[in-house]
């Protein structure tokens, strides 16, 4: 048989294969139907994103350049609201306190969550322990803050009582001393966020192949060397995600400060979100309040982009 004859037979055989016999080729009508169904399923999410995220975000940028008390007419003031916020001493105090809170909570919270996850990954009944550790994360922050107000009470709180009975130490004025109020709020936040970060780290640890540890044991690596050279590098994608989310959450702290101290004493727990709240709903200067919110958004965005830029240096993905 000639080459031309083979070619003709191959062409006829390919033409005889219909859409049912060749699953890789779908009719054009089926492709359009799949596309329409795809748009149908993403439409509710798209509407929610547009109405509750994108439009309010655009309106916030517009309102940040307006002078408005919430009732009268709006007047355009340009960048005056931003300039006044940077000149405002309370806003600068709020930035410093928020950064201080971030430094207290983020590294400590990540380290404790990683240690707890490593411990739970090697014990039986990790599902029960995971539930116990995660319960504070789903508890209302206001309720937790009220409980911790009692624990931190300088006169009859449990913490000072045990410090006195067990160690003979007179506990500090946790929530009324400017030196201890922010560490007190930080301890509450670390306790609340420990469960969420622990679950994320535990999921990352369970994704690491046991063959790495078996090879390390054969080579005589100690437990610490395995954690340092295997666990930490391979858990770095989870660490990267937890770090970003923890920093974003720390910049948005409000409930604890509002319930426990109302921003005091002497503005020692006065955070950026607390400043946004007071500027809007106490002073009724919504333009300046929105300008503070936009500044906070830009700060979080800048830090997130910076972390993503440097992540290539220390985040390692398992091949």
Automatic annotation (TrEMBL):
<feature type="region of interest" description="Disordered">
    <location>
        <begin position="1"/>
        <end position="26"/>
    </location>
</feature>
<feature type="transmembrane region" description="Helical">
    <location>
        <begin position="291"/>
        <end position="310"/>
    </location>
</feature>
<feature type="transmembrane region" description="Helical">
    <location>
        <begin position="132"/>
        <end position="152"/>
    </location>
</feature>
<dbReference type="GO" id="GO:0005886">
    <property type="term" value="C:plasma membrane"/>
</dbReference>
<dbReference type="InterPro" id="IPR000515">
    <property type="entry name" value="MetI-like"/>
</dbReference>
<dbReference type="InterPro" id="IPR051393">
    <property type="entry name" value="ABC_transporter_permease"/>
</dbReference>
<keyword id="KW-1133">Transmembrane helix</keyword>
<dbReference type="GO" id="GO:0055085">
    <property type="term" value="P:transmembrane transport"/>
</dbReference>
<keyword id="KW-0472">Membrane</keyword>
<feature type="transmembrane region" description="Helical">
    <location>
        <begin position="99"/>
        <end position="120"/>
    </location>
</feature>
<feature type="transmembrane region" description="Helical">
    <location>
        <begin position="36"/>
        <end position="63"/>
    </location>
</feature>
<keyword id="KW-0812">Transmembrane</keyword>
<comment type="similarity">
    <text>Belongs to the binding-protein-dependent transport system permease family.</text>
</comment>
<protein>
    <submittedName>
        <fullName>Binding-protein-dependent transport system inner membrane protein</fullName>
    </submittedName>
</protein>
<feature type="compositionally biased region" description="Polar residues">
    <location>
        <begin position="1"/>
        <end position="13"/>
    </location>
</feature>
<dbReference type="Pfam" id="PF00528">
    <property type="entry name" value="BPD_transp_1"/>
</dbReference>
<feature type="transmembrane region" description="Helical">
    <location>
        <begin position="232"/>
        <end position="254"/>
    </location>
</feature>
<feature type="transmembrane region" description="Helical">
    <location>
        <begin position="180"/>
        <end position="203"/>
    </location>
</feature>
<keyword id="KW-1003">Cell membrane</keyword>
<dbReference type="InterPro" id="IPR035906">
    <property type="entry name" value="MetI-like_sf"/>
</dbReference>
<keyword id="KW-0813">Transport</keyword>
<feature type="domain" description="ABC transmembrane type-1">
    <location>
        <begin position="95"/>
        <end position="307"/>
    </location>
</feature>
């Amino acid at each position: 048989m000639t080459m031309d004859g083979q070619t003709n037979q191959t062409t006829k055989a390919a033409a005889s294969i219909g859409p049912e016999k060749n699953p890789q080729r779908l009719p054009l009508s089926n492709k359009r139907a799949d596309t329409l169904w795809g748009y149908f399923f993403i439409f509710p999410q798209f509407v929610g994103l547009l109405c509750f995220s994108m439009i309010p975000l655009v309106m916030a940028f517009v309102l940040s350049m307006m002078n408005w008390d919430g009732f009268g007419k709006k007047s355009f003031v340009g960048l005056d609201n931003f300039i006044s916020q940077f000149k405002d001493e309370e806003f600068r105090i709020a930035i410093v306190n928020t950064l201080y809170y971030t430094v207290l909570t983020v590294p400590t919270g990540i380290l404790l969550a990683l240690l707890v996850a490593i411990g739970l990954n090697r014990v039986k009944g990790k599902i029960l322990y995971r539930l116990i550790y995660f319960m504070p994360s789903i508890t209302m922050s206001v309720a937790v803050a009220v409980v911790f107000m009692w624990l931190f009470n300088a006169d009859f709180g449990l913490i000072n009582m045990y410090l006195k009975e067990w160690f003979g130490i007179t506990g500090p004025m946790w929530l009324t001393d400017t030196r201890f109020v922010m560490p007190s709020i930080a301890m509450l936040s670390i306790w609340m966020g420990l469960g969420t970060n622990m679950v994320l780290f535990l999921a990352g640890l369970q994704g690491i192949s046991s063959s790495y540890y078996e090879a390390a044991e054969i080579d005589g690596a100690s437990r610490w060397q395995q954690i340092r050279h295997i666990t930490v590098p391979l858990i770095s994608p989870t660490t990267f995600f937890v770090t970003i989310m923890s920093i974003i959450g720390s910049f948005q702290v409000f409930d604890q400060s509002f319930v426990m101290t109302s921003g005091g004493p002497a503005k020692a727990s006065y955070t950026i979100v607390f400043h946004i709240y007071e500027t809007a709903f106490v002073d009724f200067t919504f333009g300046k309040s929105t300008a503070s919110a936009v500044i906070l958004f830009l700060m979080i965005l800048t830090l997130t982009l910076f972390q993503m830029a440097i992540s290539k240096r220390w985040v390692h993905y398992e091949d």
